[in-house]
Amino acid sequence: MTAALTPRQRLVLHCLSAVHHDGYVRQRHAAHVAGVAEPWAVPFMVRLAGEYVWEIVADIRTRLTEALVPGSEARRVHGAFAAEHPEFLAVTERRAVSYWNEYHRWWFPEFAGHPAAAVLELLRAAAVETTGRAWPRQTKARRGAR
Asked: Which of 17, 37, 82, 141 would disulfide-bridge 74, Cβ 3.0–4.6 Å?
């Protein structure tokens, strides 16, 4: 069925399915959304950074680490989105911290070790690169970090 779709139509399908009620479906489609340099697809990925299923966030972290290399088009697009929507990024960060605190603290004693912290840091770095100014943090910095 998806073979008949254009690449853009497939990406729309992946974006919509990345908010599916079934976590397995979300995870399967989230991998196709993370790191894509389409401005309209970025909000779907950012929303997933606040996901309560940490395995989905870990997959996104892997994809973003590959896609958001300094100077890349994907980094520029993600940085522009983060810079234009700081409230959305802040809400996502607070959601991620809340889920970490409630469900994942056992596996990740500090939020800095949680995959969502890495995803949010990538987005923050992309926003800094795009805007040239420091970007606010909703959580405490890692011990020893400034």
From this structure: 37
pLDDT bracket for residue 130 (50, 70, 90): confident
Is 104:97 a contact under the CB 8 Å cutoff? no
Nearest to 50 by CA among 110, 105, 117: 117
pTM to 2 decimal places: 0.84
Rounded to 5 degrees, what angle do the CA atoms 7, 12, 13 make?
95
CA distances to 21, 91, 94, 114, 141 from 138, rounded to whole Å, are 27, 9, 7, 15, 9
Residue 107 has a CB neighbour count (10 Å cut-off) of: 10
DSSP 140: P
Torsional class of 137: left (φ above 0), alpha (ψ -120 to 50), beta (otherwise) = beta
